[in-house]
Amino acid sequence: MEIRELRYFVAVAEELHFGKAAQRLGIAQPPLSRTITQLERRLGIALLERNSRKVTLTEAGAVLLAEGRAILSAVTAAERRTQRAATAHPSLVLAVKSGTAGELLTKLLDAYAAEPGAATVDLLLCEAHQHQQLLQDGQADVALLHLPFDSAVGLDTETLYTEKQVAVLPASHPLVSRSQVRMDDVTTLSKLPMARWPGPGGSYPEGPGAEVRNLTQLFQLIALGRSTAVIPESAGADLRRDLAAVPVLDAPPVTTVIAWPPHSRLRPVADLIRVATRL
């Protein structure tokens, strides 16, 4: 299969409409239809079911859609990383969630910058569910993840540190007067339902809590008395004055790791990982 054929097929499979797919690709519809037909003929299977009203994926087509997305993502990543490696001044992209790992991030960037021949580090601030895709498609070279909240499936990782969690509440809430609370104390607050974070695919779990994507949204909702959350204690440091953090005795620990694609061969990435694990 050719990369062009995969791009065409993925566009049709996602749009389920040849006209919309052709418009998305910037080509005419007839050559798009011919390419898909040639691909099916070469594979000896039907990838799409077509009639006058709609286009649907066959079971084989669904498999090729998943595989094709992964292949195209890998091709895009290879292009981006190759281009970065060819620049006169080496650089790497570090993906981090906005508002997290602040102290660690400062120490890491300062320590790495002091290394001989250190590359330029471009920070890519992202939302909770985006790290994995950013690493897979080459937009980022390395990322800081927080387990078990973030997914590290398919990535290589090194553990940096483990920390406890705190409940973030409005500063006026009665629980703030306690030295510590338990998960049941926080999850059963009917007027302050737990905030919901997106999963790796970007979808939210079911529940009454507000949907949030970053700490700025979360803290605003908590301050307004609309939600609460249990987060790593480092993320709850230096809170605004209308919020308070209370240690949660039985919350599972959170492990911060540095993660990268397993096939990465970029020297700046290896150097940054070495500095991070030393810290």
UniProtKB/TrEMBL annotation:
The keyword DNA-binding applies. Residues 1-58 form the HTH lysR-type domain. PROSITE patterns: HTH_LYSR. InterPro entries: LysR_HTH_N (IPR000847), LysR_subst-bd (IPR005119), WH-like_DNA-bd_sf (IPR036388), WH_DNA-bd_sf (IPR036390). It comes from the Bacteria. Keywords: DNA-binding, Transcription, Transcription regulation. Belongs to the LysR transcriptional regulatory family. This is LysR family transcriptional regulator.
